[in-house]
Every structure is written in C-alpha cells, then in structure tokens.
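ping. complex inputs:
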Amino acid sequence: MSLLLSGFTDNKPKNTLLRPPGALNEPEFLATCLRCGKCAEVCLQRAIKIGQGNSGLAIGTPYLIPREAACDLCLICIGVCSSGALRPVEKTNVRMGLAEIDHDACLAWLGDECKICYTSCPFYNQAIKLENHKRPVVDKNVCVGCGICEHVCVADPAAIKVQAGKRQ
Amino acid sequence: MKVKIARRIVQFTAFALLVLPLVWPTNSVWFGTYLSSQAAGIALTDPLAAIEVMLAGKMIWWPLIGSMIPLFITTLLLGRVFCSWICPLNTVFELAAIIKSPRVRGTRNGWTPYRMLALFLLAALLTSLPLFTILSPIGILSRTIAFGVGLELLFVVALIALEWLYDRKAWCRTICPVGALYGLLGKWRLVTIGIDSSNCLNCHKCKNACTMQVDVGSHRFLNQLTCTNCGDCVDACAAKAVYFTWKNKQKGGAVQREFVDGITR
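pong. complex structure:
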C-alpha cells in the first residue's frame, strides 16, 4: 500500500524519488524515515531536498535532484540519521540508482567530442567507460547513482540520468 | 523573575534554533527539527516518532532507542515540559493568543489524546507507515521554518484558526498524541505544582490562567496528565500560594491533597 501511495510524488511515475546514499528500499524507507530533515541540513552540497505537501506520503522525506546539485558521497547524512532509514555503507557499495545514457541525446554518441561525464565520475574509468575512446558506457556493477554525471552533462535536458528504483 | 519570562526566552530560543542551520550550516551546536535533532553531538528524537517508526518498520534500531533516552528522562523528571517550553506549535498558539484572545469553552480534559495515541500506534503497526509523524503539525511547522513553505502549512494555519473559533489549545488538549505520551511518561514526575492551602484565597486565578484547562491543585488523574509545568498558574497567584515543588513536598502536605480530592469529587 505504501508503495502505491508513494506514487503521487510531483506527478512522477511510481517509486522514482532519488534517495540519499544508504537508504533502505522505498516501502521500508517510507516506514522508517523520521521526516526530521537532519540529513538535508548537514548536506555540504545542499543536494538533499525535503519533500513537501505535494509529495504525498513522501512529505518530509529527503530526495535529490542531481541536475540541481549532486551527491559527492561524503556520507555525512548517514552519520546523522537516527532512524536507520539511511544505513552505514561503503562508498563503493552505495546504490542510490543507476545512470542511464540516452544515445539519441548524448553528444558523444551523436558523433561530437564530449567526455564530461567520463572525466567527472568519482569512479573514474570504472563506472563510466569509453567505447572506442569516444562513447560513454555505464558499468551497472560499479555505478553508485550519485548523479554527478547527470549534473555536469552539457546536453539540455541531460543525456545521462540517474534512474532511482532501478536497483531494488 | 516571572516564570513566563523564563519560558518565553526558552521558547524563542527553541524557535530560533530551527533557523540556526540555515545561517550557520556547519555548526556543532544544534541542527534538526523537533521530530529529531542533534544538540552538541547528542541525538534527540521525539519518543512518539521513534516508537512509531520502529512499529512501522517492524524493527529495533538501537541508535534510535538511544536518541529517545534524553527526552525520556527529562519527561520522567520534569513532566510535559516539551509542550510548554519547547514545542514550536505551542509557541505559535501562544503568540496567536497575544494577537487575539482565543475562545475558551471551559471543557474538562478528556481521554481522547490517549485514545489517539493508541490508535496511531496501532495504525503504524498495521499500515507500516508512521502516520502521525507524517501528519504531525509540529514536524510540518519545524520543517516549514527550516526548509520553506509548502502546501502542508495550511494544516498549521487551520489549527491556529481553531484556537480562535473553537477552543484554546484545542489541538493540544483533544488530539495531540505526542503530548499524550509525554503526559503518561510524566505522570510520576518529580517536579510538580504545589498549593499552599493556608495562603490560598480561592480566587481561582490560577485555574483561569491555565491554558490547558487544568484544575490547579486537583489530583484528578487527567489533570495530572495534562499539566505541562508551564508555570502560568504560579505567575497568576497573587498570594504566592502556587509554586513549583518536588513531588510529595507540598507545604500543605498530604492533608491538603485529601481535602482537594474531597472537594472536587
């Protein structure tokens, strides 16, 4: 039920809020989050936002819009979470979501010269690799879904996007 | 010094703390909201929110239980002081009362907050959602101050309107399960209000000053649970017959207790 009701978040499809690192899966997260906002207040990147009345059951819960500000994996938010909604995790084991490249919008895939996501990725040459030294490809097993690639993408709207909920 | 002045200082400090992380993001003094916060490195979580979350999540999370303990102990010793000295919603109600006096219906305190408490705890277990924490106007107000205005603020506005149109502290007295839980925890508090019966003039100023509609000095169970130790009655007494005291050390002693009970029943 909680999964269904969490659907009407800003008219986005079900289960698409990008949660901070270490978050439980969505139904458990909605059950456990205290809606206190401590994670958002300590976020150095000011990347964590807090859901408001139009978020339905996700009111008061933290989420990220990487296009505006991306997670730099400092993991301070996990340390201040009292409720256990954000659980301690190694940086490499964070699974916020998964970056996906739209080949019809990505400049590199369209033939231009662009490596901005490749060079900005905190897991350099691991999470995003280059095919033929040109076209970026995401490695599902390494990508943590931090959203830095989406944040820096020069295409508008971004050609690489972190899909939340792809991991659960 | 009047108790009210001290209380206003604490209330406004508590209110101002909500803004502190905005103006000074990396401070180590205080951040969070009144659902859960961190003061000088110590996590403080509202006991109801913590219990609800554990029921909804069907789990025991020790850091969460640990973060409840400071407020738990404070309430055991001092009673519902969160309500009267900290709660931002109560502060707003009292500010609203300064602007325009609330309506006072003079009804006795009932059991509904405690039924609400049981209902919300059961609902958390059944729906796997911390329903009260989601709805909590205390949380809504705290987050509005810390993160900006949203649609949900209308709920708080409605509750303020209720003050003027329906009854003073209607939310606190008839619904709020947070207060109900604090009330139950504070039943055996050490600091209480005492009455010196030899000085009492029976003027009822203390009773009229009480915003929670408590019959001051009465040992009726519900009055005991509802008293927030705010001290308004202490200020109101011209004869200085009402005062804060340690439990069972009333100047009138046990005799006075029996006497009051005899009168009110």
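Chain A has six helices and six strands.
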